[in-house]
Specification:
about 160 residues, mainly alpha, about 75% helix, signal
C-alpha cells in the first residue's frame, strides 16, 4: 500500500510540474520575448515563441521508481533475490497501469476508485511472495505510511 501511495504522489508531482510549466510558458515569461521586445512584445510573437519552446518535462523511468521502493522494502522485509525480482515486476506493472489510469479521460472520483483497486490488487500480489513474518512487516509498513499520509492531510 505504501508503495502505491509513493507512486501516486510521484505521478501527481510529475503531472503538476507539467501544468505549472505550461502556465508559465516554460519559465520564459512570454515565450522568450521578455528580453527581446521589452515586456512581452506584441502578444502574437510571444504566443508563437511559446508554442515552439514548450517541451514536456522528462518523466522518471518506472525502473528508477521501483528501485527506490525496493531499496526500502528489501532490508525492511529481508527479501531474498527471487522475492526482489518478483515484487519489482509486480511494482513495475502496477506503476505502468497507474500511469495509464491517470492519463485516462475519466472523472477524478473514478480515477481514485480505480487506483485504490489497483493498490489492493498490487498488495495481494506482493503478499503472495512473502512468508508470514514478512506479511506482518509489510502490513505494518503500509499502516505506518497511511497514518503518516493522513497526518499530513490534517495539517
Amino acid at each position: 500500500m505504501k508503495t502505491i501511495q509513493i507512486l501516486s504522489v510521484l505521478t501527481f508531482m510529475l503531472l503538476s510540474i507539467d501544468t505549472v510549466s505550461a502556465q508559465y510558458g516554460n519559465n520564459s515569461y512570454g515565450g522568450g520575448s521578455y528580453g527581446n521586445n521589452g515586456y512581452g512584445g506584441n502578444g502574437r510573437m510571444s504566443q508563437m515563441n511559446q508554442g515552439q519552446s514548450q517541451e514536456k518535462p522528462k518523466e522518471i523511468p518506472v525502473e528508477v521508481t521501483v528501485g527506490k521502493i525496493m531499496d526500502k522494502l528489501t532490508p525492511e522485509l529481508t527479501l531474498d533475490a527471487l522475492q526482489e525480482i518478483a515484487i519489482s515486476n509486480v511494482l513495475k506493472e502496477s506503476i505502468r497501469s497507474q500511469g495509464i489510469l491517470l492519463k485516462a479521460e475519466t472523472g477524478q472520483e473514478q480515477k481514485i476508485k480505480e487506483i485504490q483497486a489497483l493498490s489492493e490488487t498490487t498488495d495481494r500480489k506482493i503478499n503472495e511472495f512473502l512468508n508470514e513474518d514478512q506479511k506482518i512487516k509489510y502490513k505494518a509498513l503500509n499502516e505506518e505510511s497511511s497514518t503518516k499520509k493522513k497526518s499530513r492531510r490534517n495539517r
